[in-house]
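User: I'm writing a short methods note and want a consistent example. For Chromatin modification-related protein EAF3, I'll paste the sequence; you return only the structure tokens, no commentary, since I'll be parsing the reply automatically.
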Amino acid sequence: MATPGDKPLTYTTNERVLCYHGPLIYEAKVLKTDNFTETTTVTGFQGPHYFVHYKGWKQTWDEWVPASRLLKFNETNVALQKSLSASKESSSHASKGGSKSHSQHLSAGFASMPGAGGGSAAGLGGVGGAGSGKEAVSTRGARGKDSAAGAASRKDGARGTKRAREDDEKGKIPEMKLDLPEILKVMLVDDWESVTKNNQLVTLPRNPNVSTLLSEFAEYIKEKKPATVKEPSLLALTVVKGLQCYFDRALGTNLLYRFERPQYAQIRKEYFTGPNVVYGVTEKEMSYIYGAEHLLRMLVSLPQIITHTTLDGESVSLLKDYVNELFQWMVQEKDRIFQKQYDHTDLSYQNVSRS
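Assistant:
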């Protein structure tokens, strides 16, 4: 009987391809190929995988993707690429016109976050390079090209008006400046050093996990009602559910060091994709497995992530206030929620992580 690792490879090394990233498609190059098995997978998924480099982007964006993410580079698929890009831009402009509540804006914004796409076979569908729709990549080419085109048209005099300049101001991507306490900065450095230098890992499953932490924070906010956050009784749940949803979809793609990937693959198999996992019964999202260490990594990456969402300025400001308050709560609870000593790994694990 054929196994996932027996499937033929569709693409070859150095082949020019098109690659889905969230809802859009980008040109890429296949750097290497592999047929992942249950024991060799680094993404949590089995079968043919391709390590791709996105044209025009840093090597930090290089990743393993399944065949379902790739398309042959031909006229038909290039036309599809352009069509999806045009549709995305038109929907982004249309979304700015309607009136929404803070809750609706936040929910829509979280859905547009890098890593929050999923569901389609052609998209990422899960996490870990084979699993989350990173709009950070999906929007970058389209925005750059469209911005250049817009600038050119204004130089030609087509939109050199005060109204055009006002439209440009409104269309600017809002910034999100976080106030990260010094103690959490130290913890991030210690976390990095433990994993990348000392070959250590966070104990999994963590207790409390991300889901529990965010629920506790929501209850804390609703009870204390700090002056720094707006309408906690109405918005706290939306904020924490959005953060949890994004965490589940972004963990494998954005939040792990390379040394952690074999552990992640094993966890995915044990709690999400393995043959003994019962859908809806024993299946667990990663926010029920990982804890404060990886949640903190996600929170500090939000300013970069936000620039690739549909969140408006007011919603970004609201989210910033909640995250800054979450930082303060994490400092207050640090002795309880952060692991003091990471686990040492054996030589066999270290060899697998480097392979």
